[in-house]
Amino acid sequence: MGENEASLPNTALQGKKMAYQKVNADQRAPGHSQYLDSDDLQATALDLEWDMEKELEEPGFEQFQLDRAENQNLENSETADLNLDSIQPAASPKGRFQRLQEESDYVTHYTRSAPKSKPCNFCRLLKIFCTAIILFIFGILIGYYAHKKCPSNATSSGKLDLQLYQEILKTIQAEDIKKSFRNLVQLYKSEDDTEISKKIKTQWTSLGLEDVQFVNYSVLLNLPGPSPSSVTLRSSGQCFHPNGQPCSQEARKHSSQDPLYSYAAYSAKGTLEAEVIDVSYGNADDLKRIKEMKNVTNQIALLKLGKLPLLYKLSLLEKAGFGGVLLYIDPCDLPKTANLSFMVSLNPGGDPSTPGYPSVDGNFRQNRSNLTPLLVQPISASLVAKLISLREDRASSGACTPLELPSNEKRIVNMQIQTVTEFKTITNVVGYLKGLTSPDRYIIVGSHHHTAYSFNSQEWASSTAIITAFIRALMLRVKRGWRPDRTIVFCSWGGTAFGNIGSYEWGEDFKKVLQRNLVAYVSLHSPVRSNSSLYSVTSPSLQQLVAEKNNFNCSRRGQCPETNISSVQMQDDANYFINHLGVPTVRFAYEDIKALEGPSFLSEALFPKHATKIEEMDPFFNLHETITKLLGEVILQIADGPILPFNALDIALEVQNSLKGDQPDTPQLLAPASRLRESAELFQSDEMRPANDPEERAPVRVRMLNDILQDMEKSFLVRHAPPGFYRNILYHLDGKTSQFSILLEAWEHCKSLASNETLQEAVSEVLNSISAAQLYFKAGLDVFESVLVGKN
């Protein structure tokens, strides 16, 4: 009994202390009720304590307390068995609640003063109730937004916003591009492209790109012969090489350019002596006028490059009956090229021995050493001046005078073409960055590398340095755990100079996969041709995205010149993907504005490497850096955006703009074009806008929408197009004409013939394309509607 009596004062003291701790806790709780921290746990414990206090204050509970006090001695035998000393005071208020059952004396002391605080207890209960309601609502809000913002497995790659795009691209530096460019240019001495291909593969692999591999094809190449071609004047007996230099070993030694590589690949070879007839640019009107004046059968046409595709003009000359062609560039169209010879390819694309199918082992090889019966020889403008006996000291009034052969004079020349045809191996370098959520959807980024046995300027090194710089920046981010949603395929094509052979063969090899899975093609062909102005060539569906990126980029630099964006034919490796797969395409390049205002298709000529000096145009490689970042933003937007940034309505608007003008038979196309626009507008508003709202972005709906977007342009691939014309009619011949190119050609063809059959065929092709596109959008809307009905 003595031990129990001695312990009572201590128990009472502990009760007082713990009651004091409760008051402090009551004062602290309201200030922390809005945070999910340790104080919230304390507030929760206090709720339990206050509930117990409420029970203690109920009527009849005092009698229970007194009875418990009177029976305290009877319970000593039971409590003595408990090890109460081992229970330590708790740090939180919950500790006092635990001692409530262990220290009866504390209960007695505490509850005797309870009746005095009944009004206060009611306030406490009211506060507790309000606090509980607030905490409950606050918890619901936190749970909702946490669930909404928490990334799911489908988006574990983390969607990059504009700031993260800039974090990737800010590592791109002009100095790094310059170093890479110089290293590549030093590999010019290689007799084939093997050394360069190995260098590119090693570089891309070292940067971390996955599965970098060589893809080789054995293809038929038309190469220069053992000696240069020549042109001899019969009147004087003078012999000249294509660059205008005399046919002598001494002159060839001192020449700054090898005349061997001034030739037309896949031209007929042999010798032809005939009269030279000036056909200017060789369009239908020129030929009609000349045929009315002279007999052109088996004669030699003096033809200017430009204004129309070379293959188309050669087809007209062949039909007219010409036997040979001397091809040149008028100095008025392209200054500083008068003394330069050049190379062209007469190959529409791919390996000539396997047209339409890949050059792989086991496939049948056709014997096609030449692709035209015409003898075609590119010559310099200085040689043309010698042929027409033009004095070099001709007076210049400030305006350029185009070269022209006098109609009353007759020139007979002997042209000799020597080429050889051999099977050679061309190499593509292909590397992959696999996508995370949609690895079966591909964005191809294509450049090209040096091709042996041909003229190649430094532009290939420029494009390869740019694509390597972008890979470097991208892989730095990948190493930190990020990946794009879709797979990015990086390609360096071989055999571009001979007719985009590498890209064509690869495309034909993987055609079935690409038709289903290819999303877009981004071209890095000849990115810096001048330091004048930024020029963008893109599909209509991508024009809005390109304009946005271009405007954003120029606003950062503080200067925003007029945006030059168009959908015109390009002479590069994008050809196959545009014309055979109907894939949206984009290309950025710095171009000479004056050159763009001149005749189109001058870029079909390939000049010697010293003709284009990249470091003179962009000494600090700032233009290269700008191109890399612009293309990088577009690539990231396409590869990582949840919704493909393709605009359906822009396609419909482009179709309507292409029907403006006074062309005959086009009124019948206006009504289908109007229906196409209505369907595109409905598709844009009903499907694309809701899908861009994250709350309505269901994965199944997004996938269906993207599948429709990536195939929009396929409806505009016509079955037949004139030689050199795009099968994808959304692209125009040049920036000066907005009409459908096949309609323009058919109209010109119709003027020279009594029949309009060709025009009717072209109109039917355009009509079928417009109708197919309209039905495509309508079918897409029907699919979404049926899905929604099925869910309901």
Automatic annotation (TrEMBL):
Principal location: membrane
Gene symbol of the encoding locus: NAALADL2
Domain of life: Eukaryota
Coiled-coil parts of chain: none
Keyword Membrane: yes
Domain Peptidase M28: residue ranges: 428-592
Family membership noted in the UniProt record: Belongs to the peptidase M28 family. M28B subfamily.
Protein name per UniProt: Inactive N-acetylated-alpha-linked acidic dipeptidase-like protein 2 isoform X4
Segments passing through the bilayer: 125-146
Intracellular or extracellular location(s): Membrane
One GO CC term on file: membrane
The entry's keywords: Membrane, Signal-anchor, Transmembrane, Transmembrane helix
Membrane association type: Single-pass type II membrane protein
UniProt cross-references to Pfam families, sorted A to Z: Peptidase_M28
UniProt entry tagged with the keyword Nuclease: no
